[in-house]
Design a protein that fits this description.
Layout lengths: L1 H35 L25 E3 L2 E3 L2 H32 L5 H13 L6 H10 L7 H28 L3 H9 L4 H12 L1 H16 L3 H6 L8 H10 L6 H21 L1 H14 L1
Antiparallel strand pairs: 1-2
Helix pairs in contact: 1-11, 2-5, 2-8, 3-5, 5-8, 6-7, 8-12, 10-11
């Protein structure tokens, strides 16, 4: 009996500690939900009246202050386009580089790994002007959809170091005997990488694909800096444009759009919990 009471108290303390950092974002989401359906601006968590008018951005143009923005679906399309470019590129580059660093005894491999860590720690905001120069030289600035592709290239370049580091750990955990057996059976190095090793590290690939998608969906700074045509705005850029109309803020519309914006993120994490848990278990076994 005492043991059960002790375990119960421990659980209460642990969950109380966990709930402290969760309280602020949960209250924020609760306010977004209440304000989205409220007829007036509210301070607490209870809506004042009830209306669906704030969700009109789903089927018509967005009129906010003195400006009229395009329908929400082209903006969603641009964000998804950015994510769908980033994910396969990041997975392909990271898995190839991680395999090379893990399996090939190249001189200076340790230095390369240290440099990768340094690149990940280097603030990307410091390279905005240099990256802008590169995009201009490549003909990807101010060119509509090409600029969106340029933003995707920049994001992939900034994300790859960490993804390589993660996947290298997965490749390091694969026994060499598996690769040798495939080579004895006549597979080339490329076939070993594609047909034998990649299926083994599916949890790691799933992880970086999820992180890449979330990174693209939530990208604001680089997209805001390089995208000048409202036709190619991503969702975060559109939201920031609405916020900057501070003299004419429609809090109900802004809350409804913000709520719509976070739904894919919540759904993504809800659907990928098992994958992320498998990654933790793999790391624990390796340790």
């Amino acid at each position: 009996m005492r043991r059960k009471v002790k375990n119960l108290l421990i659980n209460i303390v642990v969950y109380s500690i966990i709930m402290v950092p969760l309280a602020i974002p949960m209250l924020g989401i609760a306010w977004l939900i209440a304000q989205s359906f409220s007829e007036k601006v509210i301070v607490g968590l209870l809506p004042s009246g009830f209306t669906f008018d704030h969700f009109s951005f789903l089927w018509k143009q967005i009129k906010f202050g003195t400006k009229t923005y395009p329908n929400i679906w082209p903006v969603v399309r641009n964000s998804l386009f950015l994510c769908l470019i980033m994910v396969p590129m990041e997975v392909l580059i990271s898995s190839s580089a991680a395999y090379a660093l893990s399996r090939m005894k190249a001189p200076g491999r340790g230095t390369i790994m240290n440099f990768i860590v340094f690149l990940h720690a280097f603030p990307g905001v410091l390279m905005l002007m240099a990256l802008l120069y590169l995009l201009v030289q490549m003909g990807l600035y101010g060119k509509g959809i090409l600029t969106l592709i340029g933003v995707a290239l920049v994001k992939v370049a900034l994300n790859v170091p960490m993804s390589v580091w993660i996947l290298k750990g997965f490749f390091d955990g694969i026994p060499w005997e598996l690769e040798w057996a495939a080579l004895v059976d006549g597979c080339t190095k490329f076939q070993v990488w594609r047909k034998v090793l990649l299926p083994v590290i599916k949890p790691g690939i799933s992880a970086i694909a999820i992180f890449s998608f979330m990174s693209g969906w939530g990208e604001w700074l680089i997209a805001y800096t390089y995208l000048r045509d409202p036709e190619y705005y991503t969702f975060p850029v559109l939201l920031s444009s609405l916020i900057y109309e501070f003299r004419f803020v429609n809090w109900g519309l802004l809350a409804a759009m913000s709520l719509f914006y976070i739904i894919p993120t919540l759904v993504m994490y809800a659907l990928t919990q098992k994958t992320l848990l498998r990654i933790q278990l793999v790391g624990a076994v390796k340790g």
